[in-house]
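Hi all, posting the design record for the shared folder.

TITLE: backbone redesign
STEP: 1 of 1
STRUCTURE INPUT:
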Protein backbone atom coordinates (compact mmCIF):
# COMPACT_ATOMS: atom_id res chain seq x y z
CA UNK A 1 0.00 0.00 0.00
CA UNK A 2 1.66 3.23 -1.09
CA UNK A 3 0.79 6.57 0.47
CA UNK A 4 -1.53 7.50 -2.37
CA UNK A 5 -3.08 4.06 -2.79
CA UNK A 6 -6.23 2.77 -1.19
CA UNK A 7 -7.52 6.18 -0.15
CA UNK A 8 -10.82 5.91 -1.92
CA UNK A 9 -11.63 2.37 -0.77
CA UNK A 10 -13.97 2.05 -3.74
CA UNK A 11 -13.86 -0.21 -6.74
CA UNK A 12 -12.74 1.89 -9.74
CA UNK A 13 -15.19 0.00 -11.97
CA UNK A 14 -18.47 -0.13 -10.04
CA UNK A 15 -17.84 2.46 -7.31
CA UNK A 16 -18.81 0.08 -4.49
CA UNK A 17 -16.82 0.00 -1.26
CA UNK A 18 -14.01 -2.53 -1.17
CA UNK A 19 -14.19 -5.57 1.05
CA UNK A 20 -11.39 -7.83 2.27
CA UNK A 21 -11.77 -11.45 1.23
CA UNK A 22 -9.70 -14.51 2.04
CA UNK A 23 -9.24 -16.60 -1.12
CA UNK A 24 -6.77 -18.83 0.75
CA UNK A 25 -9.71 -20.31 2.69
CA UNK A 26 -10.76 -22.02 -0.51
CA UNK A 27 -7.48 -23.88 -0.85
CA UNK A 28 -6.83 -24.66 2.80
CA UNK A 29 -10.00 -24.27 4.76
CA UNK A 30 -9.33 -23.61 8.45
CA UNK A 31 -10.65 -26.40 10.65
CA UNK A 32 -13.48 -25.00 12.81
CA UNK A 33 -12.84 -27.30 15.79
CA UNK A 34 -9.14 -26.49 15.72
CA UNK A 35 -9.88 -22.75 15.54
CA UNK A 36 -12.26 -22.84 18.48
CA UNK A 37 -9.74 -24.56 20.72
CA UNK A 38 -6.86 -22.35 19.54
CA UNK A 39 -8.85 -19.19 20.32
CA UNK A 40 -9.82 -20.51 23.73
CA UNK A 41 -6.25 -21.50 24.55
CA UNK A 42 -4.98 -18.02 23.70
CA UNK A 43 -7.04 -16.62 26.54
CA UNK A 44 -4.47 -18.06 28.93
CA UNK A 45 -1.46 -16.53 27.13
CA UNK A 46 0.28 -13.23 27.86
CA UNK A 47 1.49 -11.91 24.48
CA UNK A 48 -0.19 -8.57 23.58
CA UNK A 49 -1.81 -10.10 20.47
CA UNK A 50 -3.24 -12.95 22.56
CA UNK A 51 -4.50 -10.57 25.26
CA UNK A 52 -6.37 -8.61 22.58
CA UNK A 53 -9.94 -9.80 22.09
CA UNK A 54 -9.51 -8.88 18.43
CA UNK A 55 -6.13 -10.36 17.49
CA UNK A 56 -6.95 -13.54 19.39
CA UNK A 57 -9.07 -14.31 16.31
CA UNK A 58 -6.29 -13.45 13.86
CA UNK A 59 -6.87 -16.46 11.60
CA UNK A 60 -9.91 -14.57 10.28
CA UNK A 61 -8.10 -11.22 9.97
CA UNK A 62 -5.56 -9.79 7.51
CA UNK A 63 -2.14 -11.27 8.26
CA UNK A 64 0.14 -9.43 10.67
CA UNK A 65 3.73 -8.79 9.56
CA UNK A 66 6.56 -11.18 10.35
CA UNK A 67 7.20 -9.39 13.62
CA UNK A 68 3.67 -10.31 14.79
CA UNK A 69 3.23 -6.83 16.28
CA UNK A 70 -0.06 -4.96 16.45
CA UNK A 71 -1.08 -1.53 17.73
CA UNK A 72 -3.24 -2.79 20.56
CA UNK A 73 -4.81 -1.55 23.79
CA UNK A 74 -6.23 -4.99 24.73
CA UNK A 75 -9.50 -4.17 23.01
CA UNK A 76 -12.37 -6.60 22.82
CA UNK A 77 -12.86 -9.06 25.70
CA UNK A 78 -16.17 -7.31 26.36
CA UNK A 79 -18.85 -8.79 28.61
CA UNK A 80 -22.23 -10.28 27.75
CA UNK A 81 -24.84 -9.32 30.34
CA UNK A 82 -28.31 -10.66 31.12
CA UNK A 83 -30.97 -7.92 31.18
CA UNK A 84 -33.89 -9.57 33.00
CA UNK A 85 -35.97 -6.43 33.59
CA UNK A 86 -35.45 -5.12 30.08
CA UNK A 87 -36.45 -8.57 28.84
CA UNK A 88 -39.72 -8.26 30.74
CA UNK A 89 -40.31 -4.75 29.47
CA UNK A 90 -39.78 -5.95 25.89
CA UNK A 91 -42.00 -9.01 26.32
CA UNK A 92 -39.13 -11.50 26.15
CA UNK A 93 -38.26 -14.44 28.39
CA UNK A 94 -34.58 -13.58 28.27
CA UNK A 95 -32.39 -10.83 26.85
CA UNK A 96 -28.63 -10.51 26.46
CA UNK A 97 -26.44 -7.49 25.77
CA UNK A 98 -22.89 -7.52 24.44
CA UNK A 99 -21.37 -4.35 25.86
CA UNK A 100 -18.85 -2.91 23.43
CA UNK A 101 -18.76 0.23 25.55
CA UNK A 102 -16.38 -1.70 27.82
CA UNK A 103 -13.58 -1.31 25.28
CA UNK A 104 -10.47 0.79 26.12
CA UNK A 105 -11.83 4.07 24.76
CA UNK A 106 -15.43 3.21 25.62
CA UNK A 107 -16.87 2.19 22.27
CA UNK A 108 -16.97 -0.61 19.69
CA UNK A 109 -14.70 1.42 17.43
CA UNK A 110 -11.59 0.09 19.19
CA UNK A 111 -12.05 -3.38 17.73
CA UNK A 112 -11.78 -1.97 14.22
CA UNK A 113 -9.19 0.64 15.02
CA UNK A 114 -6.58 -1.80 16.29
CA UNK A 115 -6.58 -3.50 12.89
CA UNK A 116 -6.71 -0.33 10.76
CA UNK A 117 -4.07 1.46 12.86
CA UNK A 118 -1.77 -1.56 12.69
CA UNK A 119 -1.92 -1.55 8.89
CA UNK A 120 -1.59 2.24 8.68
CA UNK A 121 1.58 2.01 10.71
CA UNK A 122 2.91 -0.89 8.68
CA UNK A 123 2.30 1.07 5.47
CA UNK A 124 4.42 3.87 6.88
CA UNK A 125 1.77 6.58 7.26
CA UNK A 126 2.73 9.44 9.55
CA UNK A 127 -0.80 10.85 9.64
CA UNK A 128 -4.20 9.21 10.03
CA UNK A 129 -7.53 11.03 9.86
CA UNK A 130 -11.25 10.55 10.29
CA UNK A 131 -14.57 12.35 10.21
CA UNK A 132 -16.59 11.46 13.28
CA UNK A 133 -19.60 11.89 15.49
CA UNK A 134 -17.13 11.42 18.34
CA UNK A 135 -16.36 7.79 19.05
CA UNK A 136 -14.29 7.10 15.96
CA UNK A 137 -12.19 10.18 16.69
CA UNK A 138 -11.61 9.15 20.32
CA UNK A 139 -10.60 5.67 19.26
CA UNK A 140 -8.47 6.75 16.30
CA UNK A 141 -6.62 9.34 18.37
CA UNK A 142 -5.78 6.73 21.02
CA UNK A 143 -4.55 4.08 18.59
CA UNK A 144 -2.60 6.62 16.52
CA UNK A 145 -0.87 7.77 19.70
CA UNK A 146 -0.07 4.18 20.68
CA UNK A 147 1.31 3.52 17.21
CA UNK A 148 3.44 6.67 17.13
CA UNK A 149 1.35 8.35 14.40
CA UNK A 150 -0.23 11.80 14.29
CA UNK A 151 -3.99 12.11 13.91
CA UNK A 152 -6.40 14.61 12.38
CA UNK A 153 -10.02 14.67 13.52
CA UNK A 154 -12.93 16.38 11.73
CA UNK A 155 -16.06 16.68 13.86
CA UNK A 156 -19.29 18.65 13.46
CA UNK A 157 -19.12 21.70 15.72
CA UNK A 158 -21.47 21.53 18.70
CA UNK A 159 -22.91 18.17 17.71
CA UNK A 160 -20.65 15.76 19.54
CA UNK A 161 -20.39 15.20 23.26
CA UNK A 162 -17.66 16.90 25.29
CA UNK A 163 -16.53 13.54 26.64
CA UNK A 164 -15.68 12.26 23.20
CA UNK A 165 -14.05 15.53 22.23
CA UNK A 166 -11.96 15.48 25.40
CA UNK A 167 -10.63 12.05 24.53
CA UNK A 168 -9.40 13.20 21.10
CA UNK A 169 -7.70 16.20 22.73
CA UNK A 170 -6.11 14.13 25.47
CA UNK A 171 -4.70 11.62 23.00
CA UNK A 172 -3.07 14.44 21.06
CA UNK A 173 -5.18 14.65 17.90
CA UNK A 174 -5.36 17.81 15.81
CA UNK A 175 -9.07 18.34 16.31
CA UNK A 176 -11.06 20.50 13.88
CA UNK A 177 -14.64 21.41 14.75
CA UNK A 178 -16.23 22.11 11.39
CA UNK A 179 -19.37 24.17 10.85
CA UNK A 180 -21.23 21.33 9.17
CA UNK A 181 -22.67 17.92 10.06
CA UNK A 182 -21.00 14.48 10.05
CA UNK A 183 -21.81 13.95 6.39
CA UNK A 184 -20.14 17.27 5.55
CA UNK A 185 -17.05 16.28 7.56
CA UNK A 186 -16.78 12.97 5.70
CA UNK A 187 -17.13 14.65 2.32
CA UNK A 188 -14.36 17.08 3.16
CA UNK A 189 -12.09 14.33 4.44
CA UNK A 190 -12.48 12.46 1.20
CA UNK A 191 -11.28 15.52 -0.68
CA UNK A 192 -8.42 16.04 1.74
CA UNK A 193 -6.97 12.53 1.47
CA UNK A 194 -6.64 12.99 -2.29
CA UNK A 195 -4.29 15.90 -1.70
CA UNK A 196 -2.41 15.00 1.46
CA UNK A 197 -0.56 11.83 2.55
CA UNK A 198 -3.08 11.16 5.28
CA UNK A 199 -4.60 7.73 5.76
CA UNK A 200 -8.33 7.62 6.26
CA UNK A 201 -9.62 5.57 9.19
CA UNK A 202 -13.38 5.91 8.78
CA UNK A 203 -15.36 2.70 8.52
CA UNK A 204 -15.20 2.84 4.73
CA UNK A 205 -11.65 1.61 5.38
CA UNK A 206 -12.10 -2.16 5.00
CA UNK A 207 -9.49 -2.95 7.69
CA UNK A 208 -11.80 -1.31 10.24
CA UNK A 209 -14.61 -3.68 9.40
CA UNK A 210 -12.34 -6.70 9.71
CA UNK A 211 -11.58 -5.76 13.31
CA UNK A 212 -15.21 -5.00 14.11
CA UNK A 213 -16.12 -8.48 12.86
CA UNK A 214 -14.55 -9.98 15.97
CA UNK A 215 -17.46 -8.74 18.08
CA UNK A 216 -19.53 -11.55 16.58
CA UNK A 217 -16.75 -14.14 16.91
CA UNK A 218 -16.24 -13.33 20.57
CA UNK A 219 -19.98 -13.31 21.21
CA UNK A 220 -20.42 -16.77 19.69
CA UNK A 221 -17.50 -18.05 21.74
CA UNK A 222 -19.13 -16.61 24.87
CA UNK A 223 -22.37 -18.39 23.93
CA UNK A 224 -20.44 -21.71 23.57
CA UNK A 225 -21.02 -21.44 19.79
CA UNK A 226 -24.78 -21.72 20.17
CA UNK A 227 -26.23 -19.28 17.67
CA UNK A 228 -28.61 -16.64 19.03
CA UNK A 229 -31.79 -16.18 16.99
CA UNK A 230 -31.31 -12.42 16.67
CA UNK A 231 -28.62 -9.78 16.95
CA UNK A 232 -29.72 -6.15 17.09
CA UNK A 233 -27.40 -3.22 16.33
CA UNK A 234 -27.78 0.54 16.02
CA UNK A 235 -27.28 1.90 12.51
CA UNK A 236 -25.44 5.14 11.68
CA UNK A 237 -22.85 5.04 8.93
CA UNK A 238 -23.67 1.29 8.79
CA UNK A 239 -20.10 0.03 9.10
CA UNK A 240 -20.79 -1.99 12.21
CA UNK A 241 -23.84 -3.82 10.88
CA UNK A 242 -21.86 -4.60 7.72
CA UNK A 243 -18.94 -5.93 9.77
CA UNK A 244 -21.07 -8.10 12.04
CA UNK A 245 -23.00 -9.45 9.05
CA UNK A 246 -19.72 -10.30 7.30
CA UNK A 247 -18.56 -12.17 10.40
CA UNK A 248 -21.78 -14.18 10.60
CA UNK A 249 -21.56 -15.15 6.93
CA UNK A 250 -17.89 -16.10 7.24
CA UNK A 251 -18.52 -18.12 10.39
CA UNK A 252 -21.16 -20.09 8.55
CA UNK A 253 -18.93 -20.54 5.51
CA UNK A 254 -16.16 -21.94 7.72
CA UNK A 255 -18.51 -24.21 9.67
CA UNK A 256 -17.99 -22.35 12.96
CA UNK A 257 -21.77 -21.99 13.18
CA UNK A 258 -24.51 -23.91 11.42
CA UNK A 259 -27.27 -21.34 11.46
CA UNK A 260 -27.28 -17.60 10.78
CA UNK A 261 -28.67 -15.31 13.47
CA UNK A 262 -30.95 -12.64 12.00
CA UNK A 263 -29.14 -9.30 12.12
CA UNK A 264 -31.49 -6.33 12.57
CA UNK A 265 -30.56 -2.65 12.40
CA UNK A 266 -32.29 0.09 14.38
CA UNK A 267 -32.10 3.80 13.60
CA UNK A 268 -33.33 6.98 15.22
CA UNK A 269 -36.45 8.24 13.46
CA UNK A 270 -34.65 11.52 12.68
CA UNK A 271 -31.68 9.73 11.08
CA UNK A 272 -33.45 6.92 9.26
CA UNK A 273 -31.64 6.72 5.93
CA UNK A 274 -31.52 2.91 5.92
CA UNK A 275 -35.21 2.57 6.81
CA UNK A 276 -36.06 4.83 3.87
CA UNK A 277 -33.54 3.22 1.57
CA UNK A 278 -35.26 -0.12 2.15
CA UNK A 279 -38.71 1.45 1.84
CA UNK A 280 -38.82 4.14 -0.85
CA UNK A 281 -35.45 3.08 -2.29
CA UNK A 282 -36.44 -0.63 -2.35
CA UNK A 283 -32.91 -1.40 -1.14
CA UNK A 284 -31.54 -0.36 -4.52
CA UNK A 285 -30.76 3.32 -4.10
CA UNK A 286 -29.68 5.34 -1.09
CA UNK A 287 -32.31 7.70 0.28
CA UNK A 288 -30.33 10.31 2.23
CA UNK A 289 -31.87 12.40 5.00
CA UNK A 290 -31.04 15.59 6.89
CA UNK A 291 -30.22 13.84 10.16
CA UNK A 292 -31.41 15.09 13.54
CA UNK A 293 -31.35 13.16 16.82
CA UNK A 294 -30.15 13.61 20.39
CA UNK A 295 -28.39 10.27 19.95
CA UNK A 296 -25.57 12.23 18.32
CA UNK A 297 -23.41 9.16 17.62
CA UNK A 298 -25.89 8.11 14.93
CA UNK A 299 -26.75 11.58 13.63
CA UNK A 300 -25.84 10.54 10.09
CA UNK A 301 -27.95 11.09 6.99
CA UNK A 302 -25.85 9.68 4.19
CA UNK A 303 -24.50 6.31 5.38
CA UNK A 304 -21.44 5.20 3.44
CA UNK A 305 -21.89 1.45 3.96
CA UNK A 306 -25.59 1.32 3.05
CA UNK A 307 -25.14 -1.27 0.28
CA UNK A 308 -23.20 -3.64 2.51
CA UNK A 309 -25.82 -3.23 5.23
CA UNK A 310 -28.70 -3.93 2.84
CA UNK A 311 -26.86 -7.02 1.72
CA UNK A 312 -26.34 -8.44 5.22
CA UNK A 313 -29.96 -7.69 6.17
CA UNK A 314 -31.10 -9.64 3.12
CA UNK A 315 -28.69 -12.50 3.67
CA UNK A 316 -29.44 -12.96 7.37
CA UNK A 317 -33.16 -12.19 7.09
CA UNK A 318 -32.96 -9.32 9.58
CA UNK A 319 -35.28 -6.33 9.94
CA UNK A 320 -34.76 -2.58 9.96
CA UNK A 321 -36.75 -0.32 12.30
CA UNK A 322 -36.79 3.25 13.52
CA UNK A 323 -37.52 4.54 17.01
CA UNK A 324 -38.50 7.92 18.43
CA UNK A 325 -36.48 10.15 20.72
CA UNK A 326 -38.80 9.34 23.63
CA UNK A 327 -38.48 5.61 22.99
CA UNK A 328 -34.68 5.95 22.98
CA UNK A 329 -34.68 7.85 26.29
CA UNK A 330 -36.96 5.26 27.89
CA UNK A 331 -34.84 2.34 26.70
CA UNK A 332 -31.65 4.00 27.91
CA UNK A 333 -33.10 4.59 31.37
CA UNK A 334 -34.34 0.97 31.53
CA UNK A 335 -30.90 -0.39 30.61
CA UNK A 336 -29.34 1.97 33.15
CA UNK A 337 -31.70 0.77 35.85
CA UNK A 338 -30.12 -2.69 35.43
CA UNK A 339 -26.72 -1.25 36.33
CA UNK A 340 -25.56 -1.19 32.70
CA UNK A 341 -24.60 2.25 31.41
CA UNK A 342 -24.76 2.85 27.68
CA UNK A 343 -25.01 5.84 25.41
CA UNK A 344 -28.28 6.85 23.72
CA UNK A 345 -27.24 5.45 20.33
CA UNK A 346 -26.84 2.03 21.95
CA UNK A 347 -30.26 2.17 23.58
CA UNK A 348 -32.02 2.24 20.20
CA UNK A 349 -31.49 -1.53 20.20
CA UNK A 350 -33.84 -2.12 23.13
CA UNK A 351 -36.37 0.38 21.80
CA UNK A 352 -36.25 -1.37 18.43
CA UNK A 353 -36.55 -4.82 19.97
CA UNK A 354 -39.82 -3.79 21.62
CA UNK A 355 -41.19 -2.94 18.18
CA UNK A 356 -39.94 -6.15 16.62
CA UNK A 357 -41.58 -8.18 19.40
CA UNK A 358 -44.89 -6.35 18.92
CA UNK A 359 -44.71 -7.02 15.18
CA UNK A 360 -44.14 -10.74 15.89
CA UNK A 361 -40.78 -10.66 14.08
CA UNK A 362 -39.02 -11.61 17.34
CA UNK A 363 -40.69 -14.39 19.36
CA UNK A 364 -40.89 -14.32 23.14
CA UNK A 365 -38.77 -17.45 23.64
CA UNK A 366 -36.04 -16.59 21.13
CA UNK A 367 -32.50 -15.63 22.08
CA UNK A 368 -31.73 -12.00 21.36
CA UNK A 369 -28.44 -10.18 21.79
CA UNK A 370 -28.42 -6.39 21.79
CA UNK A 371 -25.13 -4.79 20.79
CA UNK A 372 -24.47 -1.87 23.14
CA UNK A 373 -21.98 0.20 21.21
CA UNK A 374 -20.88 2.92 23.64
CA UNK A 375 -20.41 3.58 27.33
CA UNK A 376 -22.71 5.77 29.45
CA UNK A 377 -19.76 8.07 30.22
CA UNK A 378 -19.48 8.98 26.55
CA UNK A 379 -22.44 11.32 26.81
CA UNK A 380 -23.19 12.23 30.44
CA UNK A 381 -25.07 15.42 29.46
CA UNK A 382 -27.82 13.37 27.86
CA UNK A 383 -28.29 11.30 31.01
CA UNK A 384 -28.21 14.30 33.32
CA UNK A 385 -30.66 16.25 31.13
CA UNK A 386 -32.99 13.23 31.11
CA UNK A 387 -33.00 12.77 34.87
CA UNK A 388 -33.41 16.49 35.50
CA UNK A 389 -36.37 16.55 33.14
CA UNK A 390 -34.62 18.87 30.70
CA UNK A 391 -34.01 16.54 27.75
CA UNK A 392 -37.30 17.28 26.01
CA UNK A 393 -38.04 20.73 27.43
CA UNK A 394 -39.34 23.01 24.70
CA UNK A 395 -39.38 20.25 22.08
CA UNK A 396 -42.33 18.62 20.31
CA UNK A 397 -41.76 15.55 22.54
CA UNK A 398 -42.26 17.43 25.81
CA UNK A 399 -45.78 16.11 26.37
CA UNK A 400 -45.03 12.53 25.32
CA UNK A 401 -41.95 12.43 27.54
CA UNK A 402 -44.10 12.96 30.67
CA UNK A 403 -44.83 9.21 30.51
CA UNK A 404 -41.19 8.64 31.46
CA UNK A 405 -41.31 10.66 34.69
CA UNK A 406 -41.34 7.47 36.77
CA UNK A 407 -37.92 6.54 35.37
CA UNK A 408 -36.29 9.83 36.29
CA UNK A 409 -33.98 10.00 39.32
CA UNK A 410 -32.93 13.65 39.53
CA UNK A 411 -30.22 14.68 41.99
CA UNK A 412 -31.66 16.14 45.20
CA UNK A 413 -30.01 19.23 46.69
CA UNK A 414 -30.38 19.21 50.48
CA UNK A 415 -29.04 20.79 53.63
CA UNK A 416 -26.29 18.65 55.11
CA UNK A 417 -28.44 17.29 57.94
CA UNK A 418 -29.37 13.77 58.89
CA UNK A 419 -33.02 14.80 58.94
CA UNK A 420 -32.93 16.01 55.34
CA UNK A 421 -31.28 12.83 54.05
CA UNK A 422 -33.63 10.60 56.09
CA UNK A 423 -36.52 12.51 54.56
CA UNK A 424 -35.19 11.86 51.05
CA UNK A 425 -34.80 8.18 51.86
CA UNK A 426 -38.37 7.91 53.13
CA UNK A 427 -39.82 9.71 50.11
CA UNK A 428 -37.86 7.43 47.78
CA UNK A 429 -39.07 4.34 49.63
CA UNK A 430 -42.69 5.43 49.12
CA UNK A 431 -42.31 6.38 45.45
N1 LIG B 1 -23.27 3.56 18.25
C1 LIG B 1 -22.31 4.41 18.58
C2 LIG B 1 -22.05 4.65 20.02
C3 LIG B 1 -21.55 5.06 17.57
O1 LIG B 1 -20.59 5.90 17.90
C4 LIG B 1 -21.86 4.82 16.21
C5 LIG B 1 -21.14 5.48 15.13
C6 LIG B 1 -22.89 3.90 15.93
C7 LIG B 1 -23.56 3.29 16.97
C8 LIG B 1 -23.27 3.55 14.55
O2 LIG B 1 -22.34 2.68 13.98
O3 LIG B 1 -21.76 4.05 12.01
O4 LIG B 1 -21.07 1.66 12.18
O5 LIG B 1 -23.47 2.27 11.86
N2 LIG B 1 -20.30 6.38 15.32
C9 LIG B 1 -19.42 6.97 14.30
C10 LIG B 1 -18.38 7.88 14.86
C11 LIG B 1 -19.95 7.25 12.99
O6 LIG B 1 -17.89 8.75 14.14
O7 LIG B 1 -18.01 7.70 16.01
P1 LIG B 1 -22.16 2.66 12.41
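Okay, here is what came back for every position:
SEQUENCE:
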Amino acid sequence: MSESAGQDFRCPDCGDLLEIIYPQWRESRPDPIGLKSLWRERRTLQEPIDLSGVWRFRELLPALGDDGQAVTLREGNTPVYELPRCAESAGMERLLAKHQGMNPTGSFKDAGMTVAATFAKRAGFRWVACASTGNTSASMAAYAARGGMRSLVLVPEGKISWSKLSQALDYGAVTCQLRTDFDGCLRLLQELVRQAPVYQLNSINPFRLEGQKTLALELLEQLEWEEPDHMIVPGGNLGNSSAIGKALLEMRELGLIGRLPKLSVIQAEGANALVRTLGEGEGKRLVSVQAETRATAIRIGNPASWKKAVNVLMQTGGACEQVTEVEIAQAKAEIGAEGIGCEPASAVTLAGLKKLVKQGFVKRDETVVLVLTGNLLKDPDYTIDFHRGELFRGTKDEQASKALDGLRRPPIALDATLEAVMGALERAEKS
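COMMENT: Residues 1-5 have pLDDT under 50 and may be disordered.
Let me know if anyone wants the other runs.
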